[in-house]
């Protein structure tokens, strides 16, 4: 495992920091957390997107908006460790790092798409001219995604799609969806699935909001009623979409951004606690011990990220290690949020913080609610534990 930068990486880190000093003019007023962004009205969203777009355009000039992509597609062909440092520094500065879904659908089209599909979708994706959403989960197919039932029936040069997707982040603002649909209902469940690109403005597509626990709008359910999708919008072979959708691509998976954000959240709570002490409001020993536990756990989480990126940098493929990182990090997000609630007490239950809480940017209640889905999205903790048990520890199934 690598703990310190090589001389080359140290130089690269200095380059990134200099770039941030010159071009990132954030006032610190934008809160990019899910708790904050999901509560935005349309005017606030558009204003934030305008600021973000200008910054991401600047990143794109260097190929840093999609650093893992080959230069021929507008990326920077960076190594795993270079991507790691870039993500670490951008997140620490509070700067946007990429466009939504860019590193999910982009590499898939790059690897499996036709020349025409690459020309149509990759350039506007990099420029931020279109927004994408992911259509994988269904009401009865979440962790067991291969059991999905949305149908795509071939009719000449089109597929006719009927079904439903759920928990679709950003669908209410998306121009396109990349989705999995069943094209052969008689095949075994991991087969008979195709990977399709759907224009969200096409007739028969309807989006309904799902309001989350803190009254924010991130998720949606999407319905398809006789939606005609051209066959040319299929990525890869018919009935091979499962393997297209689960392709392992060579871009950073250490999720160092999560660890950095946890450290920043914890630092806010620590600063707030010290300010309480200065004001003569003692914080009890149990709460101080809880803060110490979170600090130790955050260091462990950072080491798990280092482990994942070190495996990748040496040419390996992290499997159990990636699941450990995801599970531990998402559960730690919830513990940090709970610690903030415990320390702020009754005042922390306010959705609009006041006094010291407001001065130190402590949004305990909203952050507590927003971390609930952390252990569900991108693979539940139960699924991650199964992967660790079977693929890591060699334990039997069942």
Outline the structure in words:
- This protein is an alpha+beta fold.
- The chain folds into 3 domains: 92 residues, Butyryl-Coa Dehydrogenase, subunit A, domain 1, CATH 1.10.540; 116 residues, Beta Barrel (Butyryl-CoA Dehydrogenase, subunit A, domain 2), CATH 2.40.110.10; 137 residues, Butyryl-CoA Dehydrogenase, subunit A, domain 3, CATH 1.20.140.
- 46% of the residues lie in helices and 14% in strands.
- It is built from 13 helices and 8 strands.
- Strands 1-4-5-8 form a 4-stranded mixed β-sheet. The protein has a 4-stranded antiparallel β-sheet with strand order 2-3-7-6, with no helix packed on it.
- Strand 2 and strand 3 form a beta hairpin.
- Helix 4 runs parallel beside helix 8 and helix 10 runs antiparallel to helix 13.
- The radius of gyration is 22 Å and the shape is globular.
- The two termini are 33 Å apart.
- The mean pLDDT is 89.
Number of helices: 13
CATH-defined superfamily of the largest domain: Butyryl-CoA Dehydrogenase, subunit A, domain 3
Structural class: alpha+beta
* Shape designation: globular
At CATH's second level, what is the architecture of the largest domain?
Up-down Bundle
């Amino acid at each position: 495992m690598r703990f310190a930068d090589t001389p080359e990486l140290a130089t690269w880190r200095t380059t990134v920091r200099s770039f941030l000093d010159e071009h990132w003019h954030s006032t610190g007023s934008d809160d990019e957390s899910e708790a904050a962004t999901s509560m935005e009205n349309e005017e606030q969203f558009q204003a934030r997107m305008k600021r973000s777009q200008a910054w991401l355009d600047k990143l794109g000039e260097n190929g840093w908006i999609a650093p893992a992509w080959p230069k021929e597609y507008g990326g920077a062909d960076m190594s795993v460790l270079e991507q790691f440092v870039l993500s670490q520094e951008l997140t620490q500065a509070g700067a946007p790092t990429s466009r939504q879904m860019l590193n999910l659908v982009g590499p898939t089209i790059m690897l499996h798409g036709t020349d025409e599909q690459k020309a149509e979708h990759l350039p506007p994706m990099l420029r931020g001219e279109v927004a994408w959403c992911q259509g994988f989960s269904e009401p009865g197919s979440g962790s067991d995604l291969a059991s999905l039932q949305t149908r795509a029936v071939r009719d000449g040069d089109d597929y006719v799609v009927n079904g439903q997707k759920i928990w679709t982040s950003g669908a209410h603002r998306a121009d396109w969806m990349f989705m999995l649909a069943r094209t052969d209902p008689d095949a075994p469940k991991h087969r008979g699935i195709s990977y399709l690109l759907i224009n969200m403005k096409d007739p028969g597509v309807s989006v309904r909001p799902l309001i989350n626990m803190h009254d924010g709008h991130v998720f949606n359910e999407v319905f398809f009623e006789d939606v005609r999708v051209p066959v040319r919008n299929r990525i890869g072979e018919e009935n091979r979409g499962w393997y297209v959708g689960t392709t392992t691509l060579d871009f950073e998976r250490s999720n160092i951004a999560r660890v950095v954000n946890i450290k920043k959240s914890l630092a806010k709570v620590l600063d707030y606690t010290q300010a309480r002490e200065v004001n003569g409001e003692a914080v009890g020993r149990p709460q101080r011990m809880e803060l110490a536990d979170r600090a130790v756990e955050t260091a462990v989480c950072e080491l798990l990220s280092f482990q994942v990126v070190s495996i990748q940098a040496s040419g390996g493929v992290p499997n159990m290690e990636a699941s450990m990182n995801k599970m531990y990090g998402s559960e730690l997000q919830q513990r940090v949020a709970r610690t903030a609630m415990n320390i702020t007490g009754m005042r922390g239950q306010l959705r609009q913080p006041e006094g010291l809480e407001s001065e130190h940017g402590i949004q305990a209640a909203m952050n507590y609610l927003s971390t609930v889905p952390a252990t569900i999205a991108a693979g539940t903790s139960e699924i991650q534990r199964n992967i660790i048990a079977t693929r890591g520890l060699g334990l039997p199934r069942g």
